[in-house]
Amino acid sequence: MIAEIIAAGSEMLTPYRQDTNSLFLTEALNDLGVQVAFKTIVGDNIDHLTGAARIALSRADIVLFSGGLGPTEDDLTREAAAAALGVPLLRSDALLAGLAQRFAARNIPMSPNNAKQADVLQGATILDNKNGSASGQYLDTTLFHSDAPSVRRIVILLPGPPRELKPLFSEQVVPLLAASLPPRFLAKRMLRMALIPESLVDARTAPIYTQYPDVETTILAGSAEIQLHFLAAADTLPAAQARVDELSSRVEAEMVDAIYSSHGESLEEIVLLNLGVRNLTLAVAESCTGGLFAERLTAIPNSSRNFLGGATVYTTELKTLFAGVPKETIDSKGSVSPEVATALAEGIRQRTGASIGIGITGLAGPSGGAPGPDEHRPVGLVYLALATATGTEVKEIQLTGDRDRIRFWASQHALEFIRRGLLL
Amino acid sequence: MIAEIIAAGSEMLTPYRQDTNSLFLTEALNDLGVQVAFKTIVGDNIDHLTGAARIALSRADIVLFSGGLGPTEDDLTREAAAAALGVPLLRSDALLAGLAQRFAARNIPMSPNNAKQADVLQGATILDNKNGSASGQYLDTTLFHSDAPSVRRIVILLPGPPRELKPLFSEQVVPLLAASLPPRFLAKRMLRMALIPESLVDARTAPIYTQYPDVETTILAGSAEIQLHFLAAADTLPAAQARVDELSSRVEAEMVDAIYSSHGESLEEIVLLNLGVRNLTLAVAESCTGGLFAERLTAIPNSSRNFLGGATVYTTELKTLFAGVPKETIDSKGSVSPEVATALAEGIRQRTGASIGIGITGLAGPSGGAPGPDEHRPVGLVYLALATATGTEVKEIQLTGDRDRIRFWASQHALEFIRRGLLL
Q1: pTM as predicted
Q2: Which of A86, A103, B35, B404 has the fewest CB atoms below 10 angstroms from its CB?
Q3: Collapsing DSSP states into helix, strand and coil, what is residue B274?
Q4: Which residue in A49, A190, A295, A302 has the most chain B C-beta atoms within 10 A of its own C-beta, making it the best mutation to test that interface?
Q5: B-chain residues within 8 Å CB-CB of A14?
């Protein structure tokens, strides 16, 4: 069975807005064993939308529409689906009463337009929308086509706003589809690696994962990381799980030097988890990352248990004030130097009383270093220092790309530096 | 003239990847007066892709393909476009020589597969790709259709990677299209407002912008901000500019209490600009935003001229250590209190010597306040304090949503607090 998703709405044909529902729908459909073969984005135009619906019905078994179920003249999905299917829309008394009640509860008059939200494709099941006035619809039908006497199609109309579409789909559409499709038991795993090129991950893991043709392996390059996704379907859940686990553990053994997470956790979560189990605390003095390192850790709930905070020391004075970096060191070695990174890490550790201090200094660009020792240092040069009770380790890295990329990669290197330090 | 964009690539039919080129292409096409009426996303399947190409040629004047121009078996855009158009692919000797040279320069053997990258639609112009091996193609042709004896179509093949597609399109396709289309002079403006609901912006500005039917007005809700985009086309650039400027100045007069930027600058840029012209410096002591406030400012190049940095003071001890907040104040009033916000702002200002100090403390959730005075304070409660030479102002805000949203909105309120303070 293959599916097509039609996203209806002129705003998705502007430079400003994009269909995002289809990512959620694709994952849910894949879990049911349905592949998405086409996605079409079409504006609020009855001819365009009806044409797109006809095309979708001709080439996909399951056709999902998102959007265009509101009460305005621009909301045309019901009409287009009815025309393409050749079935009438019937006004539902129950839906009409529900709409009237909804307006009465809010003390606003219901305009005649709104009644069209009670129109239902003949034979369709109504899908209740807890978060909005647009009901969904589900129609499993046998169509008459010239090229095939009897073609089964499943047509699903969904409201556009993600907070309406998602619960409605998960709670009502998934059970209906699952009942119509062969049972399927799925197991999934995600392995994550930082700071390694995708091509190298592929070269090292392909000899393993190609031995598991029944497990779907996807390699994705994220922000300064590579993700390996494994997905297996089988007749029972334990059978699917066994295949994924076997492949996963062989890949983990091969990539043990690079993998930071074997069940999908983020690098921030893994660092906090490792600090937590060792009962350690962390503080940062960051220059070129300008708060990004702290921001990434504090985005995780309860990070305050192990991350104390730190200082964003953009100027020479603040490096001295908050991390006690000697002014002479900065003057003689430059801000972007192993000596300043070391002083930042040791200074912030000592002042905050954290178990671990990390210092980050570098040139994020676009302009180069200040006059003095930093003047001829290249954009993208970053020094990291990790200070613990047993000493301080320094790392020099040279990054490429624009300011955002250099800052993010520097924060990623810093997190990975800590994670590896904690393994020892 | 209407356009359809076909994005080819099975990865865009997974839950992980999305077509993003179409946003860039849509903006560039709109600037030329071309509306995008359909977007189709299709996998690396010759039947699906050829079918999608045929459909696009039947309903759009301009058909743009992105992706599928690589050397592998999965790269099928050339073949599909040729089949749908009914024109042959001809191998270009010049392209073939260029590919051979490219491989030779890198000292890697060219596999026979790669030769297909030299195949060109008969009659097409080759578009040179400076950033990759996949050339683009541009074909302006007259097709023979059963329903219309002679239909003009423009077919454009573009490489998938954005860093290849974007310069190739801007430098080579835009001039070709502009030469085929009526001349058009465009003027644009963007006004930005923070912390105001979209419905209120619309209610206040609709009576004005509806008087300018020749100016296209788009209201967009961004992250804790609203953007008003104006676009006018006219026979001359000054005429288009005059219409946009007139509407824009009337809307600015109406929304003067809310607009922070009248030419599209970000709130961070405006705050830094205002600090710069007044020769002022800023430092932050932030708790619930955890580095996000500093990160947003330091993301702007040269922010270090006016933003000194600051401290992420997640724990009680760090609030005292870096901003001198008296422990007794925290114990008696709680961390999330106007008193602690005030002490953070005043303390960081005094210690760093900045002209302005900002203090941010709040409950970002998901869990509530610590035992003690914060215990019954609601998630989303945030106190901001702004300390200057003339005194300290405190603001209480109550935010809703999840941790990420609360943190971002708190940082937005803090930036807006500073911007408004600088206006006085």
Answers
A1: 0.88
A2: A86
A3: helix
A4: A295
A5: 26, 30, 218
